[in-house]
From TrEMBL:
NCBIfam families: lysA. It is an enzyme of class 4 (lyase). Pyridoxal 5'-phosphate binds at residues 239, 275-278, 375. This is Diaminopimelate decarboxylase. Substrate binds at residues 278, 314, 318, 347, 375. Residues 30-373 form the Orn/DAP/Arg decarboxylase 2 C-terminal domain. Belongs to the Orn/Lys/Arg decarboxylase class-II family. LysA subfamily. It catalyses: meso-2,6-diaminopimelate + H(+) = L-lysine + CO2. Gene3D superfamilies: Alanine racemase (3.20.20.10), Lyase, Ornithine Decarboxylase, Chain A, domain 1 (2.40.37.10).
Length: 421
């Protein structure tokens, strides 16, 4: 459920007509709904209200400071993967004790940044990382709280580029080696073991892979406790999918997911952490774009938009589907055209969708890509020297630009021509 609905024939974000935002800010532009972000965050809070827990929003899915502040003020923790994301979470007012640091390639400088500013836990992904973290923390007179990310070798049944829990993926340590690696961790002077971490993939639409992984997590908790480790936190990762198609049977709800966690590890007395990204931010945002041209091709018509693959890379990168809808609701019985929806970038891959039925559209008309709040703006680039797409946050009947569109001067101003040229 989201708060992007037609009112009097025009698509709105909450109580704001999208036409108003397009007039004020121009297109393309990402538009987020505060009510939708809030609602989805709260669903996860409720799903875990049977135990001590922290819902850590995966900052990589949407890292705008205003979005982080909104969620942080609701009590969210943050799952971060870089010094940049750490800085963002802190700048949004989230205290270090609510930030978990994931990622396979943490740098020494990033470890120092987090240890200096305060951190809840590092999710360690390898032995070399463990050794380095111990050295860094010890040199600062600290012990770094850690969970070790364990790779449970389960098939998440999702797109291969975003599955992370199979043994051939680069993530975590093999579960068979956990006993040994935890023993090493316990002997390191700069390390304090606090828990176990897993994350098996993204856009999971079936709960079974979670069940399999979490059963292994429960067994491992018991085994490591028997070894004498104080396992008091379990980080279950993120990954619960969202419906990208309105007509599709919907993926399981956060409440059902919470029950899977409870069934698997509820009797262990651990504090539970989860790291949802897409499920909180995905349906909380749309990408608003204008039609530039209608072009007749050989046996097909093209709808050429002012948004391109550099603004929303998911269709080009994963073959992902986003519903594309007109901002002016199609009148009943209106004539429908069939289009390949494309952007202006000079690659055939700059195709958002093929054979989409849309009502009579003309240049200047607006369309919206639904479910674009996660992995949308954060993956945007300036390819083809197109300025980074701006972002707007709506709450009720008002909106604010939360990231402005850079001017051409700003974009060019970042480059330097050396004086010897
Ligand atoms: N925790 C860890 C350690 C992760 O690697 C991820 C996502 C998450 C949590 C959040 O997963 P979520 O709840 O959002 O599924 N760019 C891709 C998705 C990449 C996901 C990477 N890791 C896409 O556009 O589909």
């Amino acid at each position: 459920m989201d708060h992007f609905n037609y009112v009097d024939g025009w698509l709105h974000a909450e109580d704001v007509p999208l036409t108003r935002i397009a007039e004020a800010v121009g297109t393309p532009v990402y538009v987020y709904s505060a009510a939708t972000l809030t609602r989805h965050f709260k669903l996860f809070q409720q799903a875990l209200d049977w135990t001590d827990h922290l819902v850590c929003f995966a900052v990589k899915s949407n890292s705008n400071l205003a979005v982080l502040k909104l969620l942080g003020d609701l009590g969210a923790g943050m799952d971060i993967v870089s010094g940049g994301e750490y800085a963002r979470a802190r700048a949004a007012g989230v205290p270090g004790e609510r930030i978990v640091f994931s990622g396979v390639g943490k740098l020494e400088s990033e470890m120092r940044l987090a240890l200096t500013g305060g951190i809840r836990q590092f999710n360690v992904e390898s032995e070399p990382e463990l050794e380095l973290l111990s050295r860094v923390a010890h040199s600062m007179g600290l012990r770094a709280p850690i969970a070790i990310r364990v790779n449970p070798d389960v098939d998440a049944k999702t797109h291969e580029k975003i599955a992370t829990g199979k043994s051939e993926n680069k993530f975590g340590i093999p579960i068979a080696r956990a006993h040994e690696v935890y023993a090493r961790a316990a002997r390191l002077p700069g390390i304090e073991v606090v828990g176990i971490d897993m994350h098996i993939g993204s856009q999971l639409t079936d709960l079974d892979p979670f069940r399999q992984a979490y059963a292994k997590m429960a067994d491992l908790t018991r085994a490591l406790r028997a070894d004498g480790h104080d396992i008091r936190r379990l980080d279950m990762g993120g990954g619960l999918g969202i419906p990208y198609r309105r007509d599709n049977s919907a993926p399981p709800l956060p409440l059902e997911y919470g029950q899977v966690i409870r069934d698997a590890v509820g009797d262990l007395g651990c504090e539970i952490e989860i790291e949802p990204g897409r499920n909180i931010s995905g349906n909380g945002g749309i990408l608003l774009s204008s039609v530039v041209y209608l072009k007749e091709g050989e046996g097909r018509d093209f709808l050429i938009l002012d948004a391109a693959m550099n603004d929303l890379i998911r269709p080009a990168m994963y073959g992902a589907h986003h519903d594309i809808v007109p901002v002016r609701e199609a009148a009943l019985g209106a004539e429908v055209g069939r289009f390949d929806v494309v952007g202006p970038v000079c690659e055939t891959g700059d195709t958002f969708a093929k054979g989409v039925d849309l009502p009579g559209l003309a240049p200047g008309d607006l369309v919206a890509f639904r479910s674009a709040g996660a992995y949308g703006a954060v993956m945007a680039s300036e390819y083809n020297s197109r300025p980074l797409v701006p972002e707007v946050l709506v709450q009720g009947d008002h909106f604010a630009v939360i990231r402005a569109r850079p001017t051409l001067e700003e974009m060019l101003g970042r480059d330097t021509i050396p004086e010897w040229l």
